UniProtKB/TrEMBL annotation:
Name of the coding gene: nnrE
Record text on subunit structure and interactions: Homotetramer.
Cofactor note: Binds 1 potassium ion per subunit.
Gene3D superfamilies associated with the record: 3.40.1190.20, YjeF N-terminal domain (3.40.50.10260)
A GO term, aspect molecular function: ATP binding
Name listed for the protein in its UniProt record: Bifunctional NAD(P)H-hydrate repair enzyme
Cross-referenced InterPro entries: Carbohydrate_kinase_pred_CS, CARKD, Nnr, Ribokinase-like, YjeF_N_dom, YjeF_N_dom_sf
Catalytic activity: (6S)-NADPHX + ADP = AMP + phosphate + NADPH + H(+); (6R)-NADPHX = (6S)-NADPHX; (6S)-NADHX + ADP = AMP + phosphate + NADH + H(+); (6R)-NADHX = (6S)-NADHX
Cofactor: Mg(2+); K(+)
Length: 544
């Protein structure tokens, strides 16, 4: 499991380790600085060849302390190092001050005001500078800054080396470590070296664009003891990772009904493509049977296009309710191409809330807890009255909004997320998705290159299509319909909503990456066999 931490969680782990006596803050700072230098040489081995010139920008906290360590180690390596401190040396925290003093035994520090009244630009031209080290702010950033950014921009611009590299210590300064949002401005890095665990901000929002590349440096912090972990496990956000092959394999002694029967509800004639995409995805991911549900007038369109996928007729809500008396139909998908009017009629039935409220029938006493994925029109249909939808949702539901749909159901949360952040930690997509899941009472998958998945308990994860998992060709019409189909198929196969959402999202990105440029939505389900084979080959061999 790759855990992602908030700044507060990181501080808690560090404090617990120091209080336990297993390590000192000074030792942690030394390991952090050393880790940055090692990462620099590993990433840019040409810098090992000769001595170079570095500019190290240090801030008023421990991030600056790490910067002084880096300066010292580079100097010991034979480099020429120019150090700038933005802040008052006498106000540095103790460990940072100790490293400031150690550096002062080796070299000069140009001290600058952190909030300058005017531009301080006299001595930043460092001819021949090969490396800029950003040790201004890390997890302690609380407000926007300007002065050091101007200095950085000048250091970069004034370097006569066009290939000057920028390494950020922990986080690029200006980036909020909890949200990946930028407080006014940020120092874009080519590489960010972070400690113990990556932070949420490395994967959310603007984080991946500002961090360059993430390198994780082990500074020897042990996980908390089982009885009293420094951070409660439930509060830790996970990065969605490669699923176990066993979770997706089919057993030799099982039959098709062992893998569930998924129903995908479709819309009026001419709009059925989205439902067919979702259906194909559900079948490829391994649902035993998949049917598209449509009205009489739509049968011909679907019949012309579908083969292994079956067609079931249901003209209206009452007919759907009758169809759903068959409990083998264990997972439903509503939304892709459904149309908002039809969604308003059918969603209550799909959710086991009895006939549509307009008919005035009482809600059934114990509605079947069938798995239900609601996407697209099934979400937009409740834009005027989200609470009506939330009242019907249950724990086997998954909502898969993109940012626009999220804003329709949770306008207040979207507003907070869209507001320009003025202080750190800023409200994050994880915060918004967790709040949304608690309000809706079900699993929410909030789409994007930084897809966030959360369930009402607060468990949350990020499926990042960034860094070495970038999948920009997923930005294509219908790819969301395929994702809804993947999740529905996995629910039909018996996964929990959270596991289905995470696994579906991971496979979605993997299929896009397996296909590469030129991808359109139809291509995604067709990559599943290859992706599953790769998972099988990656799995440890076992007797089957
Ligand atoms: N937590 C840990 O376990 C470790 C932390 N280390 C380093 O320590 C960093 C965190 O140190 P700190 O908590 O001291 O935080 P920072 O060094 O990120 O900066 C915080 C300081 O800057 C001030 N500040 C924040 N935003 C400002 C702004 N816009 N303008 C002016 N001042 C501003 C704060 O009031 C505080 O004094 C990490 O990012 C990492 O680099 C490492 O030494 C290794 C171990
Ligand atoms: N730049 C991107 N990188 C990675 N994934 C992306 C990107 N843009 C969109 N996606 C993914 O593609 C899908 C698009 O879904 P959606 O917006 O609902 O599209 P549609 O309604 O056309 O099906 C989502 O899963 C989203 O996370
Ligand atoms: K930094």
């Amino acid at each position: 499991m790759t855990k992602l931490l908030t700044a507060e969680q990181m501080r808690g782990i560090e404090t617990a380790a120091i209080e336990s006596g297993s390590v000192t803050g000074l030792e942690l700072m030394e390991r952090a600085g050393r880790g940055v230098v090692e990462a620099v040489f590993a990433e840019w081995p040409d810098l090992l060849q000769a001595s170079h010139i570095a500019v190290v920008l240090c801030g008023p906290g421990n991030n600056g302390g790490d910067g002084f360590v880096v300066a010292r180690l580079l100097k010991e390596w034979g480099w020429e190092v120019r150090v700038f401190l933005y802040g008052d040396p006498d106000s540095l925290p103790p460990d940072a001050r100790a490293n400031y003093k150690r550096w002062r035994e080796l070299g000069e520090v140009t001290v600058r005001d952190i909030d300058p009244a005017s531009l301080q630009d006299d001595d930043l031209a460092v001819p021949g500078c090969s490396l800029i080290v950003d040790g201004l702010f890390g997890t302690g950033l609380t407000r926007p800054f300007r002065g050091p950014f101007t200095a950085f921009a000048q250091a970069r611009d004034l370097s006569d080396k066009k290939d000057v590299r920028v390494v950020a210590i922990d986080t690029p300064s200006g980036l909020c470590a909890d949200s990946g949002r930028i407080l006014d401005t940020a120092i874009r890095a080519d590489m960010s070296v972070t400690f113990h665990a990556a932070k949420l901000g490395h994967y959310l929002d603007r984080g991946p664009s500002e961090c360059g590349k993430i390198v994780l440096c082990d500074i020897g912090l042990k996980p908390g003891s089982e009885s009293r972990p420094a951070v409660p496990p439930d509060e830790i956000v996970r990065l969605v990772e490669r699923p176990a092959h066993a979770a997706l394999a089919k057993r030799a002694d099982h039959h098709k009904y062992s893998h569930g029967h998924a129903l995908i509800l479709s819309g009026v004639p001419g709009t059925g493509g989205a439902a067919r995409l979702a259906a194909r995805a559900a079948l490829r991911i391994g649902a035993g049977l998949v049917s598209v549900v449509c009205e009489d007038a739509e049968v011909a369109e679907h019949a012309a296009q579908l083969t292994a996928i079956m067609i079931k007729r249901a003209n209206g809500a009452a007919a759907l309710a009758a169809l759903l008396e068959d409990e083998r139909l264990n997972a439903l998908c509503l939304g892709p191409g459904l149309g908002v009017d039809r969604a308003r009629d059918l969603v209550p039935v799909a959710l086991g809330a009895g006939d549509p409220p307009s008919r005035g029938r009482a809600r059934s006493a114990s509605p079947p807890r069938r798995s239900v994925v609601l996407d697209a029109d099934a979400l937009t249909a409740f834009a005027e009255a989200p609470a009506d939808l939330f009242a019907m949702l249950h724990e086997r539901c998954v909502l898969t909004p993109h940012a626009g749909e999220f804003g329709r159901l949770f306008p207040d949360l979207a507003e907070r997320l869209d507001a320009t952040p003025t202080k750190g930690p800023a409200y994050s997509k994880v915060d918004a998705t967790r709040e949304a899941a608690a309000r809706a009472g079900c699993t929410i998958l909030f789409k994007g290159p930084d897809t966030v998945i959360a369930e009402p308990s607060g468990q949350a994860s990020i499926n990042a299509a960034r860094y070495d998992r970038a999948a920009p060709w997923l930005a294509t019409a219908g790819s969301g319909d395929v994702l809804a189909g993947f999740i529905t198929g996995l629910l039909a196969r018996g996964m929990s909503p959270m596991e289905a959402a995470e696994t579906g999202a991971w496979l979605h990105v993997e299929c896009a990456r397996a296909f590469g440029p030129g991808l359109i939505a139809e291509d995604l389900p067709e990559r599943i066999p290859e992706v599953l084979r790769d998972l099988e080959h990656a799995a440890p061999r076992r007797a089957r």
